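User: My instructor asked us to take a sequence, write out its structure as tokens, and then describe one feature of it. I'm not sure where to start. Here is the sequence I was given:
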Amino acid sequence: MVETVISIRAARLGDEAEIASVHDAAWREAYRGVIPGRELERMIARRGPAWWRLAIARRTPLLVLEFSDSVVGYVSYGRNRVPALGYGGEIFELYLAPECQGCGFGRRMFDAARKDLAGHGLSNLVVWALADNERAVSFYRRLGGRVLRRARETFGGQQRERVAFGFG
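Assistant: Let's start with the prediction itself. The structure tokens for your sequence are:
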């Protein structure tokens, strides 16, 4: 019998190439047709292994989900960047490799980040998602997020709506 181990742990040096690979694939899956193609590729290119290595070295709160010794997801989080919303914590990014989406891993990563934030006194949190990213919007609604605010963001000269979800 082969045992498959699924774990969530803090990112460590050596994970950067796998995190970059998940980032690239997940962003293309989530934003193709939402963010203009050239701008999307520029955004992806900025987040190569060197970027992730620096984030890990700086001890950015960053968890990875390992499935059979491979990093297949990540979540980054910290203090809310928009204090006026009245929420202490924020999940900045939560992404899974496309082939691992829909398996419950996203919920596990969300819960792990939320637990760590609460352990640092940040018991409520906010998450922003592009409104056209239907999978993310649906995911955060299913987790019980309530819409706090809507805002506009420009990508390659085109405006897109983003939505802030609050979790108490």
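For the description part of your assignment, you could build on this observation: The two ends are 42 Å apart (CA to CA). Try explaining in your own words what that tells you about the chain.
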